Amino acid sequence: MRRFLAPILGLALLAGACDTPTPQASEGPFKKGSGTLRVLAGSELHDLQAILDDVKAATGVTVKLTEIGTLDGIERVASGAAVRDQDAIWFSNNRYLELHPQASGRIDVSTKVANSPVVLGLRASKAKALGWDQHRPTWSEIAEAAGAGKFTYGMTNPAASNSGYSALVGVAAALAGTGRALTSAEISALTPRLQSFFAGQSLTAGSSGWLADAYVQRQSGGAPIDGLVNYESVLLSLNEGGKLKEPLTVVYPADGVVTADYPLTLLAGANEQARTNYAAVADYLRRPSTQRKIMETTFRRPAVPGIALSKSFGPADGGLVELPFPARYDDATALVTGFGDSLRKPARTIYVLDTSGSMKGARIKGLQSALLGLSGADNSLSGELTRFNGREQVIMLPFSTTPKAPRRFDLPATNRQPVTNQIRGYVRGLAAAGDTAIYDALTRALELAKQLDGADPNRFTSIVLLTDGERTVGPKLPAFKTYHAKLPAKVKAIPIFTLLFGEGNVQEMTEVARVSGGRTFDARGGSLAGVFKQIRGYQ
Known about the structure:
Elements: E1 35-41, H1 49-59, E2 61-67, H2 70-79, E3 88-90, H3 95-99, E4 107-112, E5 114-123, H4 124-130, H5 139-147, E6 153-156, H6 162-176, H7 184-189, H8 191-198, E7 201-205, H9 208-221, E8 227-231, H10 232-241, E9 248-251, E10 259-260, E11 263-267, H11 272-286, H12 288-298, E12 301-302, H13 329-343, E13 347-354, H14 362-377, H15 381-386, E14 393-399, E15 407-410, H16 417-428, H17 438-455, E16 460-467, H18 477-485, H19 489-492, E17 496-500, H20 506-516, E18 520-522, H21 528-536
Parallel strand pairs: 1-2, 1-3, 6-7, 6-8, 13-14, 13-16, 16-17, 17-18
Antiparallel strand pairs: 3-11, 4-11, 5-8, 5-9, 5-10, 5-12, 14-15
Helix pairs in contact: 1-11, 5-8, 14-16, 14-21, 17-18
């Protein structure tokens, strides 16, 4: 495997505004605690479970991670809700949170646990063809090559995942070339150059892990792409995991990156036992022996100085320039909304909606509320960043005994209100009656997607299926799978996101998501609106 690694350019990680002096690494006696440290965490930390098992054995503290999306996590902390049932948070970084106007006083001591820059990984042959196995390109060179169609890549949605947001910040800061935090006006001026970079994006996702899995599936299942913008740790893990037909060359842009530093952060207002437990866990995680194990098992760089990098990272003296993060909350948020409305390839989403008789009452009202939220009725931060975007194409395809006529809404780049009002009127008119022809409806959606893509191929297309029951009429799952297998590669690669809801067949919904390269979302025990917002990260 070949990787191009940077010479030393100075690793200048930004310190969080609320950080206290980081505990010194030590191999002395373990600090002790008892009970459970409840931690609100990002989904990418599941690979630390073996480390957390060691934490319990050494300190007596069970670290219980509760997974949450970045935006929802920020809102829970900023509103004060998080501390009601959690003791700490553990996201890939706290920078956006610390800019939130309501975050002041919500978080306490913070301990950085590991580092992972967001970089570009390309198939080795593609990196060689571009000369990037020997030459460190700037983000400007990368953007120019992407805009010229010289390579394609996948990246997570900045509104849903920190790796995508970090990439967006890094590219924008590097293209601006000012060496300081960007303002909203400067971001607007960069639009054409950022559009060039995002023209190469051919895969989107709501999480770094799902993005990596989708990349692997694309390599063997048709519609392959050339690389990923993701955490260094994810790229190195893919290379070591044996799933790739061709290894990734990790490209470190010469003008810098944005780095995740994984700060384990105590919530202000946590009780004394939680503070004791936090201190024990933080001490264990910072020990050189633990840092080395984190590096060796998760491919994250040590947060403790003086620990030699393993061979996976290349020369031990490799370093990276850290690019500036926005200094104001409004500027940080404007970068995300601008991405959805004007920078990225626009989305096309076909909502396949069960309006059979079993959806009467609270279920159809819950569906209507969720869709109304996406049309702009939800004024929360997550609502603002997951609403329908400018230039997006939204198609509603209700079904019951048969698929009904699809209704298409094309949102303009600006002045979206008239179209969102039409969407709201349509959604309020949904009514429940009849049987459940799930696979007739999915087949209609895919045929429609094929037709629309033929006329307008430069979009991210996805299908969302909501049903609260099992198929009662029309083709069954095996017939649908036979149909799906014969589709053109590009149509076959359209992800179908299925919602587990009501009495829906879990096994069938999981299989539909699997064969299409989509994902299943569980809406049985929580807010349907919350799940619809979560899906937005994948569209």
